[in-house]
Amino acid sequence: MRESVTMMEKLTKKYNLDVDVYLSREGAVVLKYYKLLKEVKTNFGKVSVEKGPNAPFLSGRLQLGMYKLFLIAPATANTVAKMTHGIADSLITNSAAQAMKADVSVYIFPVDQKECEVITKLPDGRDLKLRTRKEDVENVEKLRRMQGIKVLSGLDEFEAVVKELQL
């Protein structure tokens, strides 16, 4: 989570981007838990939290061409699984589906891209060892094959996207 916030802040300043942040309900909870929600609200002009699959009406804004792209970062295993199986029942999954239908590029950075164990930091600074499940990695591979989706292997790849699109 920290890496995603840092990347967005860096690119916003470096390329003078207007970034609107749309958070799932759970995303807002996690940002608050990691003490990042206030930072996000301070550094980005528009921050909206999901009230339902179509509220706020992000999919409408995507369909009307108000955004050049849709970035999902980080994407949980749950979001990836839903997208690979055509489930669009949350703000993020519904907006991604609608963006693809309107030919708006969807970039996604899934957290579970290879089977391994990773050490992550808890909000109190302690380490937590997590194991990536085979099923989650298989869903990311399915996502890579979907039309209209570009899976990012690392957040650093997103800067190349920004440069390419000259946002």
Folded structure, characterized:
With 167 residues, the chain is α/β, with parallel strands linked by helices. The chain has one domain (2-153): 3-Layer(aba) Sandwich (Rossmann fold). It has helices at residues 2-15, 25-33, 37-43, 58-63, 77-84, 91-101, 134-144, 156-165, and strands at 20-23, 46-49, 69-75, 105-110, 117-121, 127-131, 149-151. The strands form three sheets. The chain has a three-stranded parallel sheet. It has a two-stranded parallel ribbon with strand order 1-2. Strands 5-6 form a two-stranded antiparallel ribbon. The protein starts with a helix and ends with a helix.
Count structural domains.
1
So what's the CATH class?
Answer: Alpha Beta
**What is the N-to-C order of secondary-structure elements (H for helix, E for strand)?**
HEHHEHEHHEEEHEH
Would you identify the CATH architecture?
A: 3-Layer(aba) Sandwich
Task: Give the secondary structure arrangement, pairings included.
Blueprint: H1 2-15, E1 20-23, H2 25-33, H3 37-43, E2 46-49, H4 58-63, E3 69-75, H5 77-84, H6 91-101, E4 105-110, E5 117-121, E6 127-131, H7 134-144, E7 149-151, H8 156-165
Parallel strand pairs: 1-2, 3-4, 4-7
Antiparallel strand pairs: 5-6
Helix pairs in contact: 5-7
Brief description of this entry?
This protein is of the alpha/beta class and 167 residues long. The protein contains eight helices and seven strands. The strands form three sheets. Strands 3-4-7 form a three-stranded parallel β-sheet. It has a two-stranded parallel ribbon with strand order 1-2.
